[in-house]
Amino acid sequence: MLDRNILEGVVVLHETLYEIHTKKLDGVVFKVDFEKAYDKVKCLQQALRMEGFDQSWRNQADSFTQKESVGIKVNDDIGHYFQTHKGLRQGDPMSPILFNIVVDMLTILIGRAKDDGQVGGLVPHLVDGGVSILQYADDTIIFMEHDSAKA
């Protein structure tokens, strides 16, 4: 998007933490560090369906994430299969795509929980509805109001 800046998330994080600290607000700031999220969740196929991927793409994603050997297809010829250590690894071309799809599902789930009143964002006076989630690369920070019952 042309109207976004790469530092926008960092600025929102800084401003939110500054506001919480200076006004002594209660809240929860939870940093999540993902490790190959797409092959540890059960919703990858559902996420791919929701994003409009057809069955052949979903089958490819399964074969990359579930099998321990991969063959590369070039011009309708499949080369020799080579072994992987539990499917794709960080640095493989499919990793960022599958990671983004899975993390997008997390964002949708948190947004739905927020809309249903199950969680509340922080600093609603700075950001409409309050900040509930920030994502950059593989870093995810979740913000929640301090409410033991909702947590």
From TrEMBL:
Q: What InterPro entries does the database record attribute to this sequence?
A: DNA/RNA_pol_sf, RT_dom
One Pfam family this sequence matches: RVT_1
Where the record annotates domain Reverse transcriptase, the positions are 1-151
Which domain of life does the protein's organism represent? Eukaryota
Q: Where is the signal peptide?
A: none
PANTHER family cross-referenced by the UniProt entry:
REVERSE TRANSCRIPTASES (PTHR19446)
Protein name per its UniProtKB record: Reverse transcriptase domain-containing protein
What is the phylogenetic placement of the source species in the record? Eukaryota, Viridiplantae, Streptophyta, Embryophyta, Tracheophyta
